[in-house]
Amino acid sequence: MVTQVNMHEAKTQLSALVERALSGERVVIARAGTPVVDLVPHSRVTVVFGLGRGSSSSMLRSLTRRMPRYRNCSMVQRCDPA
How is residue 54 annotated by DSSP? Predict the structure, then answer.
């Protein structure tokens, strides 16, 4: 079932609308009769930063081992190979 409410009603009845959305009902908030927002339950998303585990990190290590090493580097002078 879909429930559509206007912005003012959504502000005054927010707690009840959240409960309805959590119970599985679709709640649509409208502005001047035009739907603008769907009220849905939050779904947890796992974000992984970096390369993660396993082959990706070992692949990066093997690539960086093959890169030439430099010493005496700065932004204003040329780098000399080690």
Answer: T
